[in-house]
Design a protein that fits this description.
Strands 3-2-1-4-5-7-6 form a 7-stranded mixed beta sheet, sandwiched between helices. α2 runs parallel beside α10. The chain has one domain: 3-Layer(aba) Sandwich (Rossmann fold). 38% of the residues are buried. 42% of the residues lie in helices and 21% in strands. It has 245 residues and is an alpha/beta fold. α4 links the parallel β2 and β3.
């Protein structure tokens, strides 16, 4: 357990460094998620460094940021305010919230869990009637690389698989799209041996390429849905008033 915690802390530190450099993947995905938010009370489950929670608070949301790691200091360093309530919580244990939320965000969370059905069931229970769930997950199992192993992924999802799990949990799918077609092409190149991963995300964040990709994502890919290719899937769902059994 101690080694796992140290690994997670290292990952959080690396994420904070990339956020400080406005890394295109983080900044563009955060902007996309913010565009899908509804309501005022928001749960950011698996909040990581807390940067999304801070952005939500700045938009006027009352935010609960939850993570298995204690990132309360990170929230303060990111400019967290009294509008953010941090909860130290494992997503695969019961969510004991007293009041339901208008919106729940599961951004790159489900792929790290052993029982994603449990997490979706708890999300359903923690939402208000007609509340919104926003989900992002890595897409396309055939794109699995060593990176998935290194960051602790349990799976990559097909569109059909994640839709079926959400419907089974009681959600109506309002939007589903692939995202990050550039990343998908890079992963395909690595898989077939055309590209070699001899670079780091920090190298890209410090280069001219980062600004170019950030412009592309914010002004094109976030607005135009790639029809069949992307390294991630993004879904917006609504809690159904009568859960299907």
């Amino acid at each position: 357990m101690e080694s796992i915690l140290k690994e997670n802390l290292t990952t959080l530190k690396e994420l904070q460094e990339l956020e400080n450099l406005s890394y295109f993947w983080i900044s563009a995905k955060q902007e996309l998620i913010l565009s899908l938010i509804e309501g005022k009370t928001v749960l950011d489950m698996g909040c990581g460094t807390g940067s999304l929670a801070v952005a939500l608070a700045k938009k006027g949301c009352k935010v609960t940021a939850a993570d298995v790691m204690d990132i309360s200091n990170s929230l303060l360093n990111n400019g967290g305010s009294n509008e953010i309530n941090f909860v130290n919580l494992d997503a695969e244990r019961p969510w004991n919230f007293f009041t339901p939320f208008d919106c729940i965000i599961l951004s790159d969370v489900l792929e790290h869990t052993k029982d994603d059905n449990f997490v979706l069931s708890e999300s359903y229970r923690a939402l208000k009637s007609d509340g919104v769930l926003i989900v992002t997950v890595p897409a396309l199992p055939r794109l699995w690389t060593e990176h998935d192993d290194l960051v602790g992924h349990e799976r990559r999802y097909t569109k059909k698989e994640i839709i079926n799990k959400l419907i089974k949990a009681g959600f109506l799918i309002q939007m589903v799209r692939y995202w990050n077609s550039v990343g998908a092409l890079v992963l395909m190149g690595i898989k077939v041996g055309l590209l070699h991963k001899n670079y780091s995300q920090k190298d890209i964040a410090n280069s001219w390429l980062n600004k170019s990709l950030l412009f592309y994502f914010k002004h094109l890919e976030n607005k135009v849905h790639p029809p069949f290719l992307g390294a991630s899937l993004v879904l917006k769902c609504r809690k159904h008033h009568q859960k299907k059994i």
